[in-house]
Specification:
The chain is an alpha+beta fold and 191 residues long. The chain has one domain. The protein is 24% helix and 32% strand. The protein is built from five helices and eleven strands, in the order αβββαβαβββαβαβββ. The strands form three sheets. A four-stranded mixed beta sheet has the order 4-7-6-5. Strands 9-8-10-11 form a four-stranded mixed beta sheet, with no helix packed on it. A three-stranded antiparallel beta sheet has the order 1-2-3. Strand 8, helix 5 and strand 9 form a beta-alpha-beta unit. The radius of gyration is 17 Å and the shape is globular. It starts with a helix and ends with a strand.
């Protein structure tokens, strides 16, 4: 769908123990779009994503990579979690590929999670993605993101930032409404 509609190449990501799997659309500058799918609708992640899809939510989350995740964690009073520890067939003593801080309320999908990648594995993984992706257009970056929700709550959650956020109030569920991707041949809006 993303290739046909937008010209973006998509590569396989991984499977998660909560019933989800993902695919990835690498952009430039370390940015990417992650497409979630349901591998087991009975597990927590599958139930959560099914519920959002049934409500008409298409963009279910977004992430920000801060300068210092520990400072964000302390400011918000939320401990970081680790992720990406090994894959099927590997041992569990591998280093984490990322750490993240997220709002514990899974219904606050308009608030981003904060993520920090390990310097080695995260960068290697991203470079591998970029080499594997066959885009028909050259995606450059996320140029804007349109959010429906409490703008004051969003800004308090983010702290000091210069992110290209368009806050709107449309009376609907707080969510990510659309986002713009700047490409070498123009801007593409995804909703």
């Amino acid at each position: 769908m993303f290739r046909e509609r937008y010209g973006f190449g998509v590569i396989d990501g991984g499977h998660f123990p909560d019933g989800l799997h993902n695919r990835v659309i690498p952009l430039a500058n370390g940015q990417y779009l992650e497409i979630l799918g349901i591998s087991d609708p009975k597990l927590a992640g599958g139930v959560w994503l099914s519920h959002l899809i049934d409500q008409g939510v298409h963009i279910v989350g977004w992430g920000v990579q801060p300068e210092n995740l520990d400072e964000v964690s302390a400011r918000l009073g939320i401990s970081p979690h680790g992720g990406g520890i090994g894959t099927e067939g590997e041992t569990d003593d591998l280093p984490e590929m990322w750490r993240y801080v997220a709002d514990p309320d899974e219904n606050q999908i308009f608030l981003p999670f904060f993520i920090q990648y390990s310097r080695n594995r995260g960068n290697e993984e991203y470079l591998k993605w970029m080499k594997q992706t066959d885009h028909e257009v050259e995606p450059l970056e996320i140029s804007w993101i349109e959010i429906s929700g409490d703008a004051d709550q969003l800004n308090e959650w983010l702290g000091s930032h210069d992110l290209p956020i368009r806050a709107i109030e449309d009376g609907g569920r707080p969510r990510i409404v659309r986002l713009g991707i700047r490409t070498a041949s123009g801007e593409i809006a995804i909703s």
